[in-house]
Design goal:
The complex is a heterodimer. By secondary structure, chain A is of the alpha/beta class. Chain A folds into three domains: 253 residues, P-loop containing nucleotide triphosphate hydrolases (Rossmann fold, 3-Layer(aba) Sandwich), CATH 3.40.50; 161 residues, P-loop containing nucleotide triphosphate hydrolases (Rossmann fold); 66 residues, no CATH class. Chain A is built from 19 helices and 24 strands. The longest helix of chain A is centred in the middle third of the chain and has 16 residues. The N terminus and C terminus of chain A are likely disordered. The N terminus of chain B is likely disordered. The longest helix of chain B has 31 residues. Classes of the chains: A alpha/beta, B mainly alpha. At the A-B interface, α11, α12, β20 and α14 of A face α1, α7, α8 and α9 of B.
C-alpha cells in the first residue's frame, strides 16, 4: 500500500510514520539461479535489525542491492517512504546508506583523515580545507569513543578494530542514516567487539538504523532488536530478539533442528606425535613448548594478536625461525619452510582464506591438489585427467558444491571454499592438521561438518591443532585447550577443566603466567 | 564424465578463439586488398614472415613463462643484444661457431638467473630489477662492442635464418624449426609438468603456493633463467641474421615481446597465459607489419594499429572473463 502513496510524496519530506527503510518483494536471479525470491525487509530508525542466514542464503546479494551495487529484478525499495532507486554504490551512499563490508575498504597508505574524508572533503576553491576537516573528524572520533586515533597515522598501522572505527567514522561523516554492517566482529578481539557494541548502541540512540549481519548468534542476541532470517533466498522467519533463542535462530537458518551442534566422535589420545621445544619465529616474542598426541584435538584460545597464529606459522615454517626445534614422530626437524613441514606430515589451513589460504583465481582441481602433485606424475609428465578424477572424488567425499572441478574458486561460497582448503590437507595426507580459524565466516551447516571432520581425524589417530576465537566451539570440540596471551603460551588444560569464563579470563589477563610459564 | 572433459577442452579452445580470430582477421584483410593480395598470401611471404618472427617468438616463449608466474622481464631485448654481441666477439676470438653460440645462450641464461636471484633475494619487484638489468645488459653489450658493430667472419651460424635452407629438405630455415620445437617443449613444460603447475600457482597467488609447499623462490629463479636462455638464443639468431654483433639491436623490442604475450591471453597480474596464444600474438604483429609494409603504409600507421590491437585484445579478454 505504501507503494502508491510514495510516488506522490515530494523528495525532501521525511515521514516519521514510515519505516526508515522498507523493501518489498525483492527478487534477483543470476542466470537461471534465483538468489532472492520476494524478500520483504524493513528497518526502523533507532533499531538494530539482524539479518541472518547461512552462506549462500542471499544476505550478501540483499546487501549489494541495498547498497546499489546490484539492481533487483523486481521489487521496490523505500527510504522514509520515498522510493529509493540507486544508480550505483556511490548514489546509494549519497542517499544515506553506508555499508561496512567484511573486508574493510580502506586505502592502507592514506591517513585516517584522508580515508574518512575521501570523496567528501571539505574544500574551498578546490583546495582542501584542512581545519574544517579536522574539526569534523575530531568530533566524529570523540563521538565514537576513540579520540586516541590520530588523524595523521596511515591506516595500515592501525589494528583491525581501529580500522573499523575509521570505516564507521567515514559513514557518519557522510551522514548515513542506514548503516549496514557485514560480519563486523569476525576479525575483532573481544575487547574491540565490546567497544563496537557501545558505538552501535550510541548510534541507535541517535536514530540511525543498523542492519547487522553476523554468524555469531550470541552477539546478535546481545545487540539486535529484531531479526530476519533468510534461507535459500526467501524469508524463513522474523521476529523480536528478546522472544527468540540461539536454537530457534539456528533452526530457522538451517531449516531443521540440529540436536547436536558439536558432534563428537569417540577418540582416544595416544602416543606423542609432535612436540616443539623453544620454538620461536621472528614474529613471536616468547618461545613455545608444546606436545601433541595422536588422536587429539588441541584447541588454542586467545585474543586476536595474542600469538596463536604466529605460533602455527612458526610451526609450519611460514615465518622465519629464530630458534627452536620440532619433533615429529620422534624425528627432529627445523621448520624452515612449508615444503619441509609438509614433507614431515604437517598441513596448515590459513586464517585468511581469500588472500593466503586459497588461490581464488585458480580452479578447484589445482587448489585441491597443489600441495601433493606427485601421484599424478609419471616420467615427468603430469596427468591432468587423474588429477581431475581425484579432485572430483574429494568434492564428493566432503560434499563440496560446485558445477565442475574446473570451476574457479572465487565463484564458490565461503563454506565450500573452506571445504576445498580442508580437502587439500586431507589430499596431501597430513598427519598433523594446523587449523587457524577454520570456521570463520562460514555457514552453520559447513561448521558442523568441519567439527565432525576434526573428530573423524582424531578417531583416525591423526592430530589437530584448532585455533579459534569462538570459545563455545573450542569447548565443544577440543580435548585440551591452550591459551595464548600477549605472545605467550599461558596455560594448557583438558577442555573439561575449562569454563568459558575461565578461558576468557586467561585470554584477557594472562593470569597463571608465572605458575605455568612454559617451563623455560 | 567424458562429455564433461570434452566440454572443458572446448572451453580452453574458446579461450584461444579471440587471438585466433584476430590473426585470421589480419590475414584475411590483407589477402583481400587488391594491391597486395597475390603477394601477401603466398608461400614465400609466409616463410619470410615466419623467419622474421623467430627472434620475437623465442623471447616471447620465455616471457610467457615469466608472465604466467606473475613477473615481467624488461631486460629481454637488452639481454638479446648482449648475447648477439658476445657471439660475434667469441667468433673473433677464434672460438668455433657452436661454442660461440653457446657463449651467447649462456650469457642470456646468466642475465636471467641474476634477474631471478635479485628478485628473490632482495625481495624487489620484477619491474624494478629487470628495469635495472635492461640498462646493465645494454651497457655491457656496448662496452664489449666498444660502442660499435662487431664484424665477424661468416660461418654456418649465419645460415640459421636464411629463407631457403641449405639442405633443401628442411623446407624452412633452421631458425623456424628451432622455434617450433622449443614452442612444443615450452608448451609441454607449462601444461604437463609439476614445474609448470607450480609456475601458474606462483603467478596466481604466491602466498597460497608457499602454503602448499611450493618453493616459490626456486621456481622464480628457474623461470627467469629459462627465459634468459631463450633470450640468449634469440641473440644468436639475431647475430645469424645480421652477421654482425650490434649492441644497439632490438631497442624497445621488450615491449613487442610483452605485447605478444598479452595479445595471446597472458595476464600481467599472473596466473594466465599460454604458449599457443603467445605465438598467435607474435604472428598477429608480424603479419600486420608485413602487410602494412607491402601496402606501402607508413611506419607510424603500423604502430597505431598495433597499439589499438593490444588494447582491444585485453578488453576482449576481460569481457570473456566477466562472462565466466
Amino acid at each position: 500500500m505504501e507503494r502508491l502513496e510514495s510516488t506522490a510524496t515530494s523528495p525532501d519530506t521525511t515521514r516519521p510514520d514510515k519505516p526508515l527503510l522498507n523493501l518489498t518483494e525483492i527478487s534477483k536471479s543470476f542466470g537461471h539461479n534465483p538468489v532472492l525470491e520476494a524478500v520483504d525487509f524493513d528497518l526502523q530508525a533507532g533499531e538494530v535489525h539482524a539479518l541472518l542466514g547461512e552462506n549462500g542464503a542471499g544476505k550478501s546479494t540483499l546487501i549489494k542491492i541495498l547498497s546499489g551495487a546490484y539492481k533487483p529484478d523486481s521489487g521496490r525499495m523505500f527510504i522514509s517512504g520515498i522510493e529509493y532507486r540507486p544508480t550505483g554504490p556511490l548514489d546509494g551512499r549519497r542517499q544515506g546508506i553506508a555499508v561496512i563490508y567484511q573486508e574493510l575498504n580502506l586505502a592502507p597508505h592514506l591517513t585516517v583523515e584522508e580515508n574518512i574524508m575521501l570523496g567528501q572533503e571539505e574544500s574551498r576553491f578546490g583546495l582542501v580545507d584542512r581545519k574544517k576537516n579536522r574539526e569534523k573528524i575530531k568530533k566524529v572520533l570523540e563521538f565514537l569513543c576513540h579520540p586516541e586515533i590520530s588523524p595523521d597515522i596511515p591506516v595500515r598501522k592501525l589494528t583491525v578494530g581501529a580500522r573499523q572505527v575509521v570505516e564507521i567514522a567515514r559513514a557518519l561523516v557522510s551522514r548515513a542514516r542506514i548503516l549496514v554492517m557485514d560480519e563486523p566482529t569476525s576479525s575483532l578481539s573481544q575487547e574491540d567487539t565490546r567497544r563496537l557494541f557501545e558505538i552501535i548502541r550510541k548510534l541507535r540512540a541517535e536514530g540511525t538504523g543498523i542492519i547487522y549481519v553476523s554468524h555469531f548468534l550470541e552477539e546478535v542476541l546481545e545487540i539486535a532488536d529484531r531479526f530476519t532470517v533468510l534461507r535459500d533466498g526467501r524469508v524463513a522467519g522474523r521476529g523480536l530478539i528478546r522472544e527468540t533463542s540461539v536454537e530457534e535462530l539456528i533452526r530457522l537458518m538451517i531449516g531443521r533442528r540440529i540436536s547436536e551442534l558439536f558432534p563428537r566422535l569417540p577418540h582416544q589420545p595416544g602416543e606423542i606425535i609432535l612436540s616443539c621445544s623453544g620454538l620461536q619465529s621472528v614474529r613471536m616474542n616468547r618461545p613455545v613448548n608444546l606436545e601433541l598426541r595422536r588422536g587429539e584435538i588441541l584447541g588454542v584460545a586467545g585474543l586476536v594478536g595474542a600469538g596463536r597464529t604466529e605460533f602455527l606459522r612458526a610451526l609450519f615454517g611460514l615465518d622465519k625461525l629464530e630458534k627452536g626445534l620440532a619433533v615429529m614422530d620422534g624425528r627432529k626437524f627445523r621448520p624452515s619452510c612449508p615444503a619441509v613441514s609438509i614433507g614431515r606430515g604437517l598441513g596448515m589451513l590459513s586464517e585468511d582464506r581469500q588472500v593466503e589460504g586459497l588461490a581464488v583465481r585458480m580452479n578447484l582441481v589445482d587448489n585441491l591438489t597443489l600441495s601433493r602433485l606427485k601421484p599424478y606424475v609419471s616420467s615427468g609428465f603430469l596427468s591432468g585427467r587423474r588429477q581431475r578424477a581425484a579432485a572430483s572424488d574429494w568434492m564428493r567425499r566432503l560434499g563440496i558444491r560446485a558445477r565442475t572441478p574446473e570451476q574457479k574458486l572465487w565463484t564458490l561460497s565461503g563454506g565450500n571454499q573452506q571445504k576445498v582448503a580442508l580437502a587439500r590437507l586431507l589430499h596431501q595426507e597430513a598427519e598433523v592438521f594446523l587449523l587457524d580459524e577454520p570456521t570463520r565466516g562460514i555457514d552453520v551447516m559447513s561448521k558442523a561438518q568441519i567439527y565432525e571432520l576434526m573428530g573423524r581425524l582424531a578417531a583416525d589417530h591423526k592430530a589437530v591443532i584448532f585455533v579459534s576465537s569462538y570459545l563455545p566451539e573450542l569447548l565443544g570440540v577440543a580435548d585440551r585447550i591452550a591459551v595464548f596471551h600477549r605472545g605467550q603460551l599461558v596455560e594448557v588444560r583438558p577442555a573439561s577443566d575449562w569454563t568459558e569464563a575461565e578461558l576468557m579470563k586467561a585470554a584477557v589477563t594472562g593470569k597463571e603466567s608465572e605458575a605455568v610459564a612454559t617451563g623455560e | 564424465m567424458t562429455l564433461k572433459i570434452k566440454g572443458s577442452g572446448l572451453k580452453k579452445v574458446a579461450g584461444l578463439a579471440g587471438p585466433f580470430i584476430g590473426l585470421l582477421l589480419v590475414i584475411s584483410i590483407f589477402s583481400l586488398m587488391p594491391e597486395v593480395s597475390d603477394r601477401f598470401l603466398n608461400l614465400a611471404n609466409i616463410k619470410s614472415v615466419a623467419t622474421q618472427s623467430v627472434i620475437v617468438a623465442l623471447c616471447a616463449l620465455g616471457m610467457t613463462l615469466i608472465i604466467v608466474s606473475g613477473g615481467i622481464d624488461l631486460s629481454a631485448a637488452s639481454n638479446l643484444a648482449l648475447s648477439c654481441v658476445l657471439v660475434a666477439y667469441a667468433i673473433n676470438l677464434g672460438l668455433p661457431p657452436l661454442l660461440a653460440a653457446l657463449v651467447g645462450v649462456a650469457a642470456g641464461g646468466t642475465v636471467g638467473f641474476l634477474n631471478g636471484f635479485l628478485i628473490t633475494r632482495l625481495k624487489l619487484v620484477p619491474f624494478i630489477v629487470t628495469l635495472g638489468m635492461m640498462g646493465i645488459a645494454r651497457g655491457l653489450a656496448k662496452w664489449v662492442a666498444r660502442n660499435q658493430k662487431i664484424d665477424a667472419p661468416l660461418s654456418w651460424l649465419n645460415e640459421l635464418m636464411v629463407r631457403t635452407p641449405k639442405p633443401s629438405w628442411l623446407l624452412v630455415s633452421p631458425g623456424i624449426w628451432i622455434m617450433i620445437i622449443l614452442s612444443l617443449v615450452m608448451a609441454v613444460l607449462l601444461r604437463k609438468t609439476v614445474f609448470g603447475r607450480h609456475s601458474f600457482a606462483v603467478g596466481s597467488n604466491e602466498l597460497t603456493a608457499r602454503l602448499c609447499g611450493v618453493r616459490t623462490d626456486r621456481i622464480k629463479v628457474i623461470v627467469y633463467t629459462i627465459s634468459g636462455l631463450l633470450c640468449g638464443l634469440a641473440g644468436v639468431m639475431e647475430f645469424s641474421r645480421l652477421t654482425v654483433g650490434d649492441p644497439t639491436v632490438a631497442m624497445g623490442l621488450e615491449l613487442d615481446i610483452i605485447a605478444a604475450v598479452v595479445i595471446g591471453g597472458g595476464s600481467l597480474s599472473g596466473g594466465e597465459g599460454s604458449i599457443l596464444g603467445t605465438l598467435v600474438g607474435v604472428f598477429i604483429m608480424a603479419f600486420l607489419r608485413n602487410g602494412c609494409t607491402m601496402m606501402g603504409w607508413p611506419n607510424y600507421f603500423q604502430e597505431i594499429i598495433i597499439g589499438a590491437i593490444i588494447i582491444a585484445a585485453v578488453t576482449l579478454d576481460r569481457l570473456r572473463h566477466r562472462q565466466e
